[in-house]
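To the wet lab folks,

You asked to see what we're planning to order before we commit. Fair enough. Below is the target structure as tokens, and below that is the sequence we designed to fit it. If anything looks off to you, flag it before the synthesis order goes out.
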């Protein structure tokens, strides 16, 4: 999915702040991450017709964020989001650390 394709799924007044260039793992699937001024969005394309799956959470519903590192040679980052449910996201450290920083910046506003 390109950022242009994503605009069809944004709400009025919603602005894209961060788009991952690599995939992360959530619930046994691989997702791209988009952070807007209002939501945290996971998306992927599946199947031959490249149907789009989206999962999103309002930033205002977040109650806490935790970051952990895992591994020595092939470092991974784990972000845990706490709200009505707890979400655990895992991916390459180079993707997860900037995502964590962006989440903190926009969540605290």
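Sequence we intend to order:
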């Amino acid at each position: 999915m390109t950022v242009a394709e994503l605009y069809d799924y944004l709400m009025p007044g919603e602005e894209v702040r961060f788009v991952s260039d690599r995939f992360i793992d959530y619930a046994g699937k691989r997702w791209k991450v988009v952070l807007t001024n209002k939501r945290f969005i996971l998306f992927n394309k599946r199947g031959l017709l490249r149907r789009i799956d989206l999962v999103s959470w309002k930033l205002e519903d977040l109650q806490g964020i935790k970051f952990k590192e895992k591994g020595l040679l092939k470092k991974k980052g784990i972000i845990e989001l706490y709200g009505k449910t707890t979400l655990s996201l895992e991916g390459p450290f180079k993707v997860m650390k900037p995502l964590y920083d962006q989440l903190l910046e926009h969540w605290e506003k």
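Structural context that might help your review: Residues 93-107 form the longest helix (15 residues). The chain has a mean pLDDT of 85.

Thanks,
Computational group
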